[in-house]
Structure prediction request, 355 residues.
Amino acid sequence: MARRRRKTWLAGLFVLVVSVGGGVTAADFFRFLHSPVNLDPDAELVFMIDPGTPVRRIAERLAARDVIDRPLYFRATARFTGDARRIQAGEYVLEPGTTPYRMLEKFVRGDVKQYRLAVIPGWTFDEVLAALEKHDAIAHTLEGLSPEEIMAELGYPEQHPEGRFFPDTYQFPRGRKDRELLARAYERMEKVLAEEWKDRTEGLPLESPYEALILASIVERETGVPEERARIAGVFVERLERGMRLQTDPTVIYGMGDEYEGDIRYRDLREDTPYNTYTRSGLTPTPIAMPSRAAIHAALHPDRRGDLYFVSTGDGRHVFSETLEEHNKAVVKYQLDGDASRLRGNNQGDGAGDE
Prediction:
């Protein structure tokens, strides 16, 4: 409807130009509106319109950059169609081949340049903040605030931030505030978690969506192999039901914080923290990362085969075992180079299973 109305106004403007200036001027006006603007055919031009910029100034700036050669025609078109009052501020990409008419439409639609922020599954809240802080198209309003203060700014003062923000690629125009992007990611996680919780397998040892989020974050950090997620979740669910400790390294690493330097030592597994699932039973008090939808789905639809243990094979995958004896053999084979003498009475393993 808006485009049809604009064409009607343009027709009226064309008639006015003909009546006032004659056929030569009208033809020149028509040529201007529908001929490609002056742009490098192998490049694009980024053009910024600040809030409150009048159409006269926009036309002058376009002419100064040799994009258009008839700024008066551009102004007349925008004013006669009423578009002069509808032009939206923002950063626009002008591509080779566009015409002044299409360019004006773009300004009215607010079709501004979009930037991207990728929040990666398995990232911690600190890593999300770091990505926000180094993105130069984002307006930084949260610098210097603690995680607790940030959550209060978002309207969730009693919540821990870990795990609350959905990992995805977010598009936004220049100048979007960091808190607005966090709010989008938070709302997306709430929606996804509610959907997955509603469709969960019955009888799980999880009392709330938040517990599912915690378990999903552990699954996310334990494996990068998509087809393993549900089976990893199955091991943890089996252990929770049997009252066994989860004994999973990523929780220990999270609890170590800045003290973690790339390797877990035997004493680290015995150093008690609220997140050490070797020393404490049950789930961790909060998530340990931002889980993907796939990890949430796996946590709520575990593949239960009676497995209680798993160990890394060194290529990102795991070998699963039902008994400690089988698990110890796998540890010797895949982590101790076949040297059984190196196996401790309570071996370290690589995840659940250090009984």
